[in-house]
Amino acid sequence: MLLRRCPPERFFMDRKTPLNIFLIIGQSNAYGTYDVPEGRDEWDFRREQMKDAVLPEPGTVFCLDVDNVGGMGDIYDLSSGRPGFSPALGKRWYELTGERTVMLQTAVGGAPIESWLKPEDGKRYTYGDPRSNFYETTLAGFRRIKEQLLVPGSQYRLNRVFAFWLQGETGMSNTYYPDKDGAGIGNWEFGDTSGLITDAEYYRDFMKIRQYLKEDFGCSFTGILLVRAVRETVSEESLKLGLYTDLVPVRAAQYAINRTTGPDTAIVSRVCDTARSTSYPDKTAPGYGLMGCNDLHYTQKGHNANGIAAAENTYAHLFGTTEAGDIEIIAPDGRKRFADGDTVSLRPGEAVRTAAAVLPLYTGTPELEYISSDSSVFTADVFGTLTAAPGTEGKTAVLTVKCPAAGLIKKLNVAVGK
């Protein structure tokens, strides 16, 4: 029998080690910031937190850190540790797939979503330096990895490029002015709530970023680590429970992205919805200690949980065989789930946010549709906002949430009262 001879270049390529590049982008919780208790030295506290880190085995996960103006050091073995979720993400991904990964860490604390657009799309965020544009610095880091690890003759070949996005906290309670000083450079006005980013604006900007990641990086999947609401935006009940889950505009936009973008973008962690602060009085409560003392940044245990969830759920989303079996409709508080046939009560002119997702989660995320049976009674938009029309007191209509790909339907009655 004559055996077909493999071309030398193909044989060489197949002998190379597959190497992933995971983009870790967003703001401080993606970077790996901690809440530092009052009176504690920041670096001592950081070293203490790092003792809880879930670290990969040597030679399996690597990292390149890029700062806010593009400064970067050497690629290093992540078994040596760093704050944040990337070590746990890389470790768990390797356990699931045997694939080695380089984490490209370009997240920056406080970064608005506009700074992840291309410079020609949005104004730069200063962060103390007018050179800051984080899309550009991410591209520079990506090139550095390719130049050092993916050149001809190296032991690696590029396998996958994924992005993991954790962003949105600052914009929930502060206004970003893209041209604050009249010089084409943007910055936050902290405490100013007059121009908070809307769900539509966040969705628009994210969809641009998603497309750029595909075009410029060859990114085949973007995983969203759902952002936690901040203290200033949640209800009294949420404050009392220590669970900041309210469907504020940024979170509503992320749920809308999850249910409208198909298989290449999905929420891959909802650790935020069960995470409680180390200052929460009941230390036995679920999720206790996953958030820091200020209820803004994760502890290292919380970062670990996010990284593991992101790895497992990305794997399930892309390679799992579980089929969609139900739809969950999420109430405005982000905690309650509506049952089929439940009633939502509105006043004329009132709007409330809901969200929806396919269950089990991470089943390929088939797209969902929101349909009002009578738009003269209420409308339903892409962000799950139900708005009762003026002058509709005493009227009712039906909301249908539909997953055509899986043949699933769930309905709610919408009743307009006084």
Describe the structure.
The protein has about 425 residues and is of the alpha/beta class. It has helices at about 10-15, 30, 40-50, 85-95, 135-150, 200-215, 235-240, 250-260, 300-320, and strands spanning about 15-25, 60-65, 75, 100-105, 125, 155-165, 175, 185-190, 220-225, 265-270, 325-330, 335-340, 345, 350-355, 355-360, 370, 380, 385-390, 395-405, 410-415. The chain has a seven-stranded mixed sheet. A hairpin with a 7-residue loop joins β7 (about 175) and β8. The longest helix has 20 residues, at about 300-320. The protein is globular. The termini are far apart. Mean pLDDT is about 90; it is low at about 1-15.
Rg is 23 Å
C-alpha end-to-end distance: 85 Å
The outline comes out as globular
Instruction: Spell out the helices and strands N to C.
Output: HEHHEEHEEHEEEHEHHEHEEEEEEEEEE
Query: What class, by secondary structure content?
Result: alpha/beta
Mean pLDDT: 91
Biggest pleated-sheet summary: 7 strands, mixed
